[in-house]
Amino acid sequence: MPEKKYLNVKLSLAPMAGITDLPFRLICKKLGADLVYSEMISATGLFYGKNKKSLTLAQSIPKESPLAIQLFGNNPEHFAQATQIISDLNNPDKNFRKVEELNINFGCPVRKIYKQESGCFLMKKPLLAKKIVQAVLNNTNLPVSIKIRMGISTVEALEFLTKIKNLNWTKVIIHGRTYEKGFAGEIDFAKIKEIKETFPEKTVVANGGIFSPEDAKEVLEKTNVNELAIARGCLGNPWLFQQLKDFLETGQYSKPTLEEIKTIALEHAQLFEKYNATKNLQPFRKHLGWYFKDFENAKQLRKKLFSIETLPELKKVLKNQ
Ligand SMILES: Cc1cc2nc3c(=O)[nH]c(=O)nc-3n(C[C@H](O)[C@H](O)[C@H](O)COP(=O)(O)O)c2cc1C
Fold first, then answer.
1. Measured in angstroms, how far is the CA atom of residue 321 from the centroid of ligand 1?
2. 235 three-class SS
3. Could you tell me if 64 and 36 are in contact, meaning their C-beta atoms sit under 8 angstroms apart?
4. How far from 133 is each of 10, 69, 168, 256, CA to CA, in Å?
5. What is the tens place of the pLDDT at every residue in 258-315?
6. How far is CA 181 from the centre of its chain?
7. Among 25, 94, 222, 287, which residue has the least CB neighbours within 10 Å?
8. Which H or E run includes 4?
9. CA distances to 9, 302, 318 from 142, in Å
10. Which residue out of 28, 108, 120, 234 is catalytically annotated?
11. What is the 185 CA–ligand 1 centroid distance (Å)?
12. What φ, ψ does residue 43 adopt, rounded to 5°?
């Protein structure tokens, strides 16, 4: 019997720099993600002459809708301009894409970003964070969401959110670990639940540590949220979204067969080639490593996959496997 309380659970692909590009988002969408987040895009990069790399990161097609674009930076003026540029992508007269949400990164702990006083650093600067959220809200009709950590230094997530609660942002994605914990350690379920209870009018999304359908169920039970964002769990396993839906509905799920993995890996590689306009699959090898990590002979196969350069080479290796 489906568990009614889980019928409305929404699953999104969390933003991952260097990973959640258009090809990977399309694959996750196809395999059950309800919403997909772009890699973080520099508001400053967009501000200065529509920086080409930054705009490439916003590349999209309507098929992946709904898409959320994430911006990072620390300058409200840059966010204002970047918001206009991204919102304009929805203009049917121009490059029609269907961006449905703008997300602001207040959670990134990576040194390079933190040193620029962006990402998680901004949780320590609520006044500046507020100005940034306001700048984004003033320049778009799209819903605006934020992504934060459970805390940084002495600042707790709840305290940070309370300081910016009066602004009209609609959703918060909480990576349930503090800045200090980085990417490992326990998720603070109790605090995510408390945030959900404190802000019933906002959508609260739990993120962190979901690698299996069982993990997801535990998070839902302990936090009472009805949205989850998944990052590392779907590397090489974009089936996780469908598995999770099946598990919540029926208590069961199946794992993909080797043939299914080959098919999706190839489709992903084709999309990679198409949207990056390149024949060079070297940067794609990391995905191949993830796709084939759990199989017998995986060591041999991975060795071959790590030396492929092009799509025909990939096809040959997979065919002979
Ligand atoms: C390689 C990598 C890149 C990431 N890039 C971003 C990013 O661009 N923006 C962001 O808000 N979080 C980013 N994150 C954090 C994830 O969105 C997520 O919050 C974190 O990995 C915890 O979720 P997980 O346990 O499901 O992986 C990144 C994480 C990884 C592993």
1. 32
2. coil
3. yes
4. 24, 14, 9, 41
5. 999 999 999 999 999 999 988 999 999 999 999 999 877 678 888 899 999 999 999 9
6. 19
7. 94
8. none
9. 22, 43, 43
10. 108
11. 14
12. -65, -35
Q: Which two tokens stand for residue 138?
A: 């003033």
pLDDT one-digit tens code per residue, 56-102: 899 899 899 999 999 999 999 999 999 999 998 877 666 566 789 99
The DSSP annotation for 21-52 comes to: SHHHHHHHHHTT-SEEEEEEEEHHHHHTTT-H
The DSSP symbol for 180 reads: G
Q: What does the pLDDT look like over 188-205, one tens digit per residue?
A: 999 999 999 999 999 999
- HSE, side-chain direction, 13 A CA sphere, residue 262: 14
How far apart CA 135 and CA 83 sit, in angstroms, is: 8
Domains of the chain, by residue range, sit at: 4-250, 258-319
**Which residues does ligand 1 sit against, CB inside 6 Å?**
14-19, 39-40, 70, 105, 107-108, 147, 175, 183, 207-210, 230-233
Return the structure tokens found at 162. 């309370």
